[in-house]
Amino acid sequence: MKEVNSIKGHGAAFVTILVWGTTFISTKILLTNFTPIEVLFYRFSIGLLVLLAVCPHRLAWTGKKRELMFMVAGLCGVTLYYLLEIMAITYSAVSNVGVIISVAPFFTAILANWFLDGEKPKKNFFIGFFAAITGISLISFNASTVLKLNPAGDLLALMAAAAWASYSILARKISQFGYNTIQTTRRIFFYGLVFLVPTLFLFRFEWGLERFMQPINLFNILFLGLGASALCFVTWNFAVKHLGAVKTSVYIYLGPVITVVTSVIVLKEKITWMSTLGTVLTLTGLFVSEKKSK
Questions:
Q1: How far apart are CA 185 and CA 212, in angstroms?
Q2: Rounded (5°) CA angle 247-74-92
Q3: How many structural domains comprise the chain?
Q4: If we measure between CA atoms, which residue out of 92, 213, 211 comes closest to residue 160?
Q5: At 142, phi and psi to the nearest 5?
Q6: Domain that holds residue 111
Q7: 121: burial class by Cβ within 10 Å (0-12, 13-18, 19+)?
Q8: Other CB atoms within 10 A of residue 3 CB
């Protein structure tokens, strides 16, 4: 049974990253008519409503300590991670941000070592980490001739990676409570949106619902809300429940690889030797990190 759950966990993690790796296209399309904060608010609002429709049974009050854990998970995984990522891209190059955020598994391993029992990273994890980061760097900087460091943007990206690592640890702890995964994800979304609402007054936000009359906008926001938010957060939390925070976080390495493949298929971009080598190194790093230590 444990082996079956492990296989399901790996499948769930792969499906999650497969979808998340393609969301850049939908986000890019929506940003022509929406601000970043509008995209975030609408996608997670849709995600919350979908999870409510799928599982209408309310999760009862879990006590102050556990409820606080849900609140911090919503703050880290929904509000902080996505806001910091958006702000990082405005200050720094997308390639820089992509590489820096990919160190999230490293932060997850460090936090797991402190807060989770039985998830101390082994030697193969760090070997795989350096191989994957090298590969991701080749992929991300493939189109860049010069690496431009921007302290503000790069620091924000690093903070985003730390926020996601914190979310993964909290998701692991929450999964051990024995609650329904959809209900716990819905509770996390709720708190994430609560913390997101004040930012609507800090950034430019307009309701402008008539924009969804355009089929392309409606399709892409539904893809982000239904797929990238409602489905993927549930599958990610399911994977964390059965694989652990460290093993699941390693799948983040696949994001840039899927982005490259999607760009070739959808945008007809040409794949270069750098991106090919980067893909091979990243996949190697993933397999090495996931391999059981003897």
A1: 26
A2: 75
A3: 1
A4: 92
A5: -60, -40
A6: 2-290
A7: buried
A8: 7
- Looking at residue 143, what is its pLDDT? 53
Joined together, the tokens standing for residue 154 give 């790069």
Place of tokens 């090298």: 134
CB 227 within 8 A of CB 19: yes
Cβ-count burial 126-155 (b if 16+ within 10 Å, e if not): eebbebbbbbbbbbbbbeeeeeeeeeebbe
d(CA 171, CA 189): 12
92 CB contacts (<8 Å, ≥6 apart)? 148, 150, 152, 153, 154, 156, 157
Q: Each residue's pLDDT tens digit in the chain (294 positions)?
A: 677 788 999 999 999 998 988 887 788 788 889 988 999 999 999 999 999 999 998 888 888 999 999 999 999 999 999 989 888 877 776 666 777 788 888 889 888 888 887 777 778 888 888 888 888 777 766 655 444 556 777 888 889 999 999 999 999 999 999 899 999 999 999 999 999 999 998 888 899 899 999 999 999 999 999 999 999 999 999 999 999 998 899 898 887 778 777 767 766 666 677 777 877 888 888 888 766 544
Q: How many other C-beta atoms are found inside a 10 Å radius of the C-beta of residue 219?
A: 13
Structure tokens at 180: 């329904």
DSSP letter string over 114-175?
A: HH-TT----HHHHHHHHHHHHHHHHHHTTT-SS----HHHHHHHHHHHHHHHHHHHHHHHHH
C-alpha span between 45 and 50 (Å, rounded): 9
